[in-house]
Amino acid sequence: MTLRVGLRDSATFANFLAGDNAAALHLLQQGGEPFVYLWGGQGSGRTHLLQAACHAESARGGSPAYLPLAALARAGTAVLDGLEQMSLVCLDDLQAVAGQGAWEEGLFHLYNRVRDAGGRLLAAADAGPAVLGVQLADLRSRLSWGPVFQLQSLDDAGKLAALQLRARARGMELGAEVGAYLLRRCPRDMHALFELLERLDQASLAAQRRLTIPFVRELIN
User: Fold this and answer.
1) Is 88 strand, coil or helix?
2) Do 55 and 138 reside in the same domain of the chain?
3) Could you give the angle at which helices 190-207 and 156-169 cross, rounded to 10 degrees?
4) 3-class DSSP state for residue 60?
5) Which pTM does this prediction carry?
6) pLDDT for position 36
7) Inside any domain, residue 190
8) Which residues of 94-120 are buried (b: 16+ CB within 10 A; e: fewer)?
């Protein structure tokens, strides 16, 4: 099984607009903390940061593993076997397995194995460790072994800046008026907006047209 499945090339530290999450971004960029827990609502950037940490670890010559637990929950806890051999383990969507006895026990032992092996573990969920719904008390304590960050969603100005940053990374120019139009007319969580931006980029290349409001209106309608 390829544990790096699902990593997006676009998920890097360089194109993450920190906003109020600068402290979390800085600590993850340093890469020295053995255990970190991130939590926040949909679109707060937790998946982006975990995948960016994997890319950075690979660039340093390390061996990262990214596990989207919402997608792997039905696969069973066997996916956790041997992960202590990786230099970095990133567990996303912990809420998907919280309250499930076998998963909680498996994650508890994984934390211990990663610690003993001298590796690093990053975990992310939609709620803090104390209110995640984890029943195993020992696992709850493991989730708080290191720094815990609540990720704050971007306001409208931050979302516009993030869209423009991602557009520049793709070699396209997104004007402020066009960006504001997208925020008014489209889903407002960042994952959906970035997916829309990718489709707009492909359409503009195919049509050899700039991103203008009439062009965008035609596409999204």
Assistant:
1) strand
2) yes
3) 40
4) coil
5) 0.83
6) 98
7) yes
8) bbbbbebeebbebbbbbbebbbeeebb
